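Justification of resources, computational component.

The compute hours requested in this renewal are based largely on the per-chain cost of generating structure records like the one below. Each record pairs the submitted sequence with a full structure-token output. That output is archived, and it is also reused by downstream analysis tasks.
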Amino acid sequence: MKRKGFKIAGIILLVIAAGTGFSFAVMLLWNALMPSIFGLGIIGFWQALGLLVLSRLLFGGHGHHGGRKFGGMRDKNGIREKWMSMTPEERKEFVEKRKENMCGGRFGRRRFFGNKDFDFDSTDFDKKDNE
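The structure output for this chain reads:
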């Protein structure tokens, strides 16, 4: 039981040390860069810590990485499941639609090169050499 208490205390101290270190790093970087680049004022330790917390809330998520425990889809692959349930005809149609939309669609190669196929014969190269 005592070991578990030491482990929890160690984790808490590690979190506090990491938070302090990151706050000092943010404070030093802010004070070194922002006033000279953007003309902003300098900040203190607590303002740097608040900035870290704010950025974590706005951009960093909340510690959940989408595992099964939290209702995420880490082990599920919806596209693969859909592909496996398709018949060969449906797969072929899907591939053709994807080619049309991704490679030969509005801004694809067919618009640039025309609607010709891209199967080159040896006669195509012979024509170039003879010209």
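Residues 2-58 form one domain. DSSP finds six helices and no strands in the chain.
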